[in-house]
Amino acid sequence: MKRIPILLLPALLAGCAWLAPTYHRPQMPMPDKWGTQQAATVPDGGAWWRSYNDPVLDALVAEALKNNDDLALAGSKLQQARAQYKYAFANQLPSISVAGADAMGRLHLKDELPVAHKMSNLGFVGGMLNYEADFWGKNASLSKAAKAGVKAAGYGHEAARLSIAAATAKLYFSLRALDRQREILQQTIETQTALLALVQRQHEVGAVDALVVQNVTEQRDAAQAALPDVEDQRGKAESALAVMLGRAPQQIIEQAMERGKNIDELTVPIPTPPEIPSTLLERRPDIAMHEQTLIASNFNIGFARAAYFPTISLASLAGVNNIDIDNLYRATTRSWTLAASMAAPVMDFGRTASGVRLARAEKNEQVILYKQSIRTAFKEVHDALLEQNNARAREQGDGGKETAAEKTVELTQLRLEHGYASRLDVLSAQVLAQQAELAHTTALLSSLDASVDMYRAIGGGFDTTAPQDGKGK
């Protein structure tokens, strides 16, 4: 029964980080409320992109979350952190190894002894146990720091997922807006070309002067000049989206990007921040990542402090010996040894003290980064609220202008049919309507981007109280 406490000693010592400071989350003043906003709702367990009701967008985001290179790098860092934790945790436990030796020689005895002089083997086979008694929590601190590193890497993986999903959605919306702008510009060029032909005929008969012809020509030329720019932006948006999706070079060059709903058919959600501002700390994966990195740096101080104290190691060797290796398993001798060693620092010329100061300085750096991430998060929510409100107001205003311009075209066409307007009036009204539609398309894109920015600012459904394994959803 006396052996039980000795056998349990490694388990009792493992995990005790005596010298690490007690961790306290840095405190920052938090606002009581955002304003009149209601609590946020993110559908389908964090799949916020489904709020736009476009199956093609859903498929593209899923593809990006599966194949994106940046996300793969974040996953690799997570695997490295897990391996590092397993290594650090194993350092707290004893190591057991097999030891063996074989030597050949001749044993010389006195001639009068009745023992034949012959070649013999000196053999040994046994096991060896090594253990560093972690009285000061050095290995435990290192293990706990690595465990916090695993959590930080997992939260970093979630932050990468959120950024990639947001970037994919915004690229897709830009592509759909450019598609629509291209169509409108092509219609505008056709309309203004017809208008220019009509004005030129009127000029030939003296109905209008040359200035009118010049103005219409400039408007047509401006539309034609804008079309190549839109085509260029459209092609670049396609290739950027293909890279975001992790597609092969051949697909980037040859494969056309899938399209879903038109930009004016997409649902524009209005996400809002959490009702209690302080809960944003639990909703942002980047904040959670910085806090776990801070916790890891806190345990690193304990690891550095442990260097002030002695290192105590235990070693045991047990096995069988025989002078004849052929008869090793019928050995005539068995042996075991138990040894302990201690190495205590006496004078290291400030090496340990410098290590402790370095660990403390690194922790202070992580405190600053943690607080900075909180400030950035609240700034992004604040900016997203402004962007969302202003974009919605612009979209509603430009939508009203587009509706009014379309009504003007209808009324002018009706007047033409009854002989109260000319074809010139109808074409001019169509040009104004197309310009209003271009402005409305730009405003729609701003509203969609603003909603994505808000989803990203509030964490996209992430919650530290939910299980996080870094494997994605």
From TrEMBL:
It is found in: Cell membrane. Residues 1-19 form the signal peptide. InterPro entries: MdtP/NodT-like, OMP_efflux. This is Efflux transporter outer membrane subunit. Belongs to the outer membrane factor (OMF) (TC 1.B.17) family. It comes from Komagataeibacter melomenusus. Keywords: Coiled coil, Lipoprotein, Membrane, Palmitate, Signal, Transmembrane, Transmembrane beta strand. PROSITE patterns: PROKAR_LIPOPROTEIN. It comes from the Bacteria. It is a lipid-anchor. Its main location: membrane. Residues 175-233 form a coiled coil.
